[in-house]
Amino acid sequence: MTENEMTSNESTESTSTAEAAASSPDPSGDPLVEQSIDVEGTNETTGTTGKPVIESRDLNVFYGETQALQDVNLAIPEKQVTAMIGPSGCGKSTFLRCINRMNDLIDAARVEGDLYFEGKNVYDDDVDPVALRRRIGMVFQHPNPFPKSIYDNVAYGLQIQNQTENLDEKVETALKRAALWDEVKDQLDKSALDLSGGQQQRLCIARAIAVDPDVILMDEPASALDPIATSKIEDLIEELAEEYTVVIVTHNMQQAARISDKTAVFLTGGELVEFDDTDKIFENPDSQRVEDYITGKFG
Ligand SMILES: Nc1ncnc2c1ncn2[C@@H]1O[C@H](COP(=O)(O)OP(=O)(O)OP(=O)(O)O)[C@@H](O)[C@H]1O
Known about the structure:
By secondary structure, this protein is α/β, with parallel strands linked by helices. It has one domain (13-294): P-loop containing nucleotide triphosphate hydrolases (Rossmann fold), CATH 3.40.50.300. It contains 13 helices and ten strands. The chain has helices at residues 3-6, 16-21, 31-36, 92-99, 129-135, 150-160, 167-177, 181-184, 197-210, 227-240, 253-259, 278-283, 288-294; strands spanning 52-63, 66-77, 81-85, 109-117, 120-121, 136-139, 215-219, 245-249, 262-267, 271-277. The chain has a six-stranded mixed β-sheet, sandwiched between helices. A four-stranded antiparallel β-sheet has the order 2-1-4-5. β9 and β10 form a beta hairpin. The chain is globular, with a radius of gyration of 19 Å. The relative contact order is 0.16. Bound molecules: adenosine-5'-triphosphate. It comes from Haloarcula mannanilytica. Keywords: ATP-binding, Cell membrane, Membrane, Nucleotide-binding, Transport. Pfam families: ABC_tran.
């Protein structure tokens, strides 16, 4: 999908929150942003190496009087797994929802600052959040398949986009990528609600990737699953990062350490305290507060 498609005017939801937040110029003409995205080296402001695909600049989010994120500057690299960790209420989910503008759906939410996806501020007036979410898919904590067949769950997004050519093949490919095909190939007409929780979550991942997004956001995708189902999801996430940029919120520090390349540590008050290679965060963080959190001294 091109940027033009992302900015089509066919939005099906209110953009009032976005209009309030979209105060900065298009970054393509903003020398500050051009300087900030150093494709080969390390970004001085946000600490990321490699090509950033998502970049927040002084991002602040409020729910009414409550400030959930404070001046967050973070650049997320392409085709890697980036984990967001931190104690409850520190703003991890809020940050994730900013990326594909899911916070637009929360009346009390107000976003200030900038969030760029491939160099385009997603809070610009001309961005259609529905088109944006086709490129930035999301998987939630509790598996939420539609009350339809396994096949229809995966085909749905393609059908509403009129991408029905070779539909069977596309459904099969998505189910294979989500490591579910072998378990469901003989029962595609069965209700998705009859699958186990872990299978339902992999079906939701298949549904998200069927429309071929660039980024997959995952909000605690394994927290409702048993250890075996969790292990399958973790393996799958690592495989997905070969093709997609994956951003995952998790409460499980071992999980972050196992599967992510980069880790962002948010602490109370919505502050991004440290962002670095996952090994560095878990073995030798710069911040004493991060070390205390990682070692269980608080949080
Ligand atoms: N819809 C909402 N309305 C009002 N306040 C909200 C809403 N969503 C989140 N908040 C508040 O914003 C802050 C950050 O919440 P958020 O859910 O982003 O944190 P989190 O780190 O993901 O937490 P958890 O790990 O418990 O899921 C919290 O103080 C929370 O109470």
